[in-house]
Structure prediction request, 1168 residues.
Amino acid sequence: MVTGPKSSFGWVVHLSVVVFVALWMLPTVGLLVSSFRDKDQISVSGWWTALSTSSQNLVFRAPAGDGEEVVNGRYVLKGSVLDGASGQVSAFGFSSREPAAFAPGTVADLKDGVTLTVAGDGAFELSGPASFAEGRGQRIFYTAEVPPRFTLENYRNVLTASGLGRSFLNSMTVAIPSTVIPILIAAFAAYALAWMPFPGRSLMIAAVVGLLVVPLQMSLIPLLKIYNSVGQALGFDPKSYIGIWLAHTGFGLPLAIYLLRNYMAGLPREVMESARLDGATDFQIFTRIVLPLSFPALASFAIFQFLWTWNDLLVALVFLGPQDDKLVLTGRLVNLLGSRGGDWDILAASAFVSIAVPVLVFFAMQKFLVRGLLAGSVKGG
Amino acid sequence: MSQLWAALATIVIGISGAALYFWGSNLLLDRIYPARAADTATASRNIARAALIRPWLFLGPAILALTLYLVYPVIASLWLSLHDRSGENFVGLANYRWLFGDAGFRESMFNNFLWLLVVPAASTFLGLIAAALTDKIAWGNLAKSLIFMPMAISFVGAAVIWKFVYDYRAEGSEQIGLLNAIVVALGGTPEAWIATPFWNNFFLMAILVWIQTGFAMVILSAALRGIPEETIEAAVLDGASGLQIFFKIMVPQIWGTIAVVWTTITITVLKVFDIVLAMTNGQWNSQVLANLMFDWMFRGGGDFGRGATIAIVIMLLVVPIMVWNIRNARKEMEGR
Amino acid sequence: MKSTLLATVCASALVSGAVCAQDLKFAPGEDARFNWASYEDYAAKYNLDGQTLTVFGPWRGEDQALVESMLAYFTAASGVTVKYSSSENYEQQIVIDTQAGSPPDIAVLPQPGLIADLASKGLLTPLGDETQGWLKDNYAAGDSWVSLGTYKGKDGAPALYAFPYKIDVKSLVWYVPENFEDAGYEVPQTMEELKALTEQIVADGGTPWCIGLGSGGATGWPATDWVEDMMLRTASPETYDKWVSNEIPFTDPAVVGAIDEFGWFARNDKFVDGGAAAVATTDFRDSPKGLFASPPKCYMHHQASFIPSFFPEGTKLGVDADFFYMPAYAGKDLGKPVLGAGTLAMITKDGEASRAFIEWLKTPIAHEVWMAQSGFLTPFKAANPEAYGNGALKKQGEILLNSTTFRFDGSDLMPGKIGAGAFWTGMVDYAGGKSAADVAAAVQAEWDAIK
Prediction:
């Protein structure tokens, strides 16, 4: 660990990190809270209001006659506007124009001799000369202090989606080789670009930087054309796992080579030269010295590449297809949304379902992010 | 279950195939040109020959993959940019002429320029701060994970997250967007952040900065940890303060990595379109090049000629960065 | 349990030796509303066991379950195994797949503009004269459906490429009947009355409309429906057609007038919930929720027939919410125009199963099983209107039948860059305060640029 001077402003560091983390987390916390909220509430009130008791104007529709009794010649319908939930009614009304006209416990006169009263605990009594079975059921407007209410329904919807397990496996099958293969290829290439002299080396480095910028969307159609003709010539389905691994490898390589080359170029020259004097070949230097030393860089790239392939939808749809048996997790989650895609509840819950794996990977890889095996002594030339 | 095994098997085959190539090809090279030959002349000739070939063995798969997946599409784009919307009839430079007269293109160039000025600088700087601070504290790893989290969220998720930040409701009604709720609580009037031309660019940029800071932090943190302790200890003994050590000793040592992070984020900015597509799709004057390209490529059947033309322009914009990187690489090698 | 039940249904119902792949929602032969004869005839005629068909469509989520319930009958009758898939960006996906040469067998798309493009690039298979004749004879207002499905091919010759299947009515105004009762409002029968009601509500201290144009990357589209509806109510259908094909420019007084008609509603701070400034940024999925607030944030909401899926959970159509036909001006002799949209099926890869699928769409049963559920309207005359699954659908069916003019969503008919681009952006600018003439000029400039 790099330890700075033990100074009096240590707490400043802690405080700054706390502020930094809080700022970065705040938007995500909003989504996290929303993912536990009722679908209808998400777009009506701010997520922070979900954490405290709030005063809400609500509407309850009394059943149309179900459960009514005849008492003293009048039809009486009883129930609770809160419908089992907890809360405290502070006002009620029967018209949308005056939804809070009456205090709890008072009796409101509706037309045709019908009366309505709602108590503070939500119990209502509707009484009238005729049966309530005719009509739609009286609307009761009420204002209530509602305690925070959370639901696991959104997660249940997402996690019980049919085919989710399958899609999870598909995503794994896509993401793991799509992470490992480019790292392997890039590590060799990066070593060659950093430590093996050959003509045109700096041009190659420039080319790698240039290729970083090629827009992915641009490549899809030409590549799929090649895939299709190769598939046709050899008689197999062009949309296969091998195809998507290679595609992710191709798209991920420039960044991998660029990052790894930069890191490897910074490794101390003496170590390599002494190894070479001992008669080690480039291959041996690479596998025995450079690779272990480059672990932090390899790990950080692995994290990013895994993330991109895991969260990718476009490449998967194009090179693997949208069919049910090959659908990746992102595709499955997106398909849960309706055709017009406005289900904030599902969006919120699925965002956290799909984030779980990448965050686990990050935690697992974190110990490799500290410097390599020969740490401390190697850098310094 | 069978899917699991099939998946495992394909994973093992895929990865070991790649590993086998490197190991096998090197073995082959060593066999053909053995370094331990009978006489030293042969041996040194063999070593020289092997040294000539080996870089290409190492680079081979990468070059192959890059050529197929990136170079070939670039050439295809170049070809398409000289053709009409169906990609069949040659039109010369008509697409380029159209592009430079197009108001949408000028707007995108201006906005992209703003993005290029702000996002790489802000992300790298914040990432560096985050890396430096979290390296100093015991719960740094946890803090890192939390700052890193936005990177792990898909764009669909990020779009929803920021909807809950930027949402605008008229004055007087309950705000569900965090930013407007804060503004209202402080006595201000709510603003439609995303729909205010010019300034909305910065609100969109904030999203990318929020995401990319995690990237910069991870890379820079690895570099910071690679700084040998002796240099810092020496500075401490000289009585340098924490800030002095950071800016005068640590930052110069990782300058190369900072440049790499900067370059990478700059290129990400050139390619950014998911955020713009999801939040505004370029409306309210927030268009950027990559989204403009996407628009022409795919909307309503697509105009491949014009889409490709914009892609070529995006690729040309990276030339200064390439030149700068060549220079750096040359300098590095000379210094060696 | 379920599988045995299914097996008996399959065994008893199937005339041919077709596979019983999926749960059939309504047991064949049982419900008299359905035309089971058409199902059995089809099953007797087609025996394509072992073939598979890939279908790519715009329906996801609940809609996907609906289309799959219909496809199950196709599978049961023909023996063809169907693989349905969709994608969030289906528009982009279909362009990539067809261009690269790996299209699905059947594609179903809602945008005629996109279909026209695919046809002109030679990526679609003509459906033939027989299907053209069938549409003409069997769909209400058959000629207009034929012309909707007819596009110019690669050779420039027009041919029928797409089969209209499933339509939506757009000229609807949603409201809460009890809120109208509480305030003593009547459903307006003419546009004059609608405007008077709008002013009346303001005079009573309420807000008449909820309008939201927000839709992420597609922000602006709900306004195009408004403008098209107003266009049909202020100009002749022929003018509408000329507008859509740009025979008259966007800057034509008729178009600018229609935009300003929309502006009468949307640009008045008192007429819209949240004021005019909120129109462009309010999400279209959130805006109808204002109808159900207490007290109501607004009394009316103009939107197509799909919108109930964004009403609060538990909202019962016909009880908690209802709709009325967006009325026409009594003072203008333009009849009762209806704006609609819909999806069209096309063959992207020719084959026996693809052809059989188009034939399947000509059976009443292919329409009735979806009608009986939700969200499906059809102009197919032989489909039994009694099969409609709920009162709302039946009522929309009636609006469709009573219409004197039916026009397809103009923004879908325009080239994609306009109808799904410049027009949207223009409407966002208009909602933001730009003048109708400036907006129209900007859209026309873009249109000129792609010619």
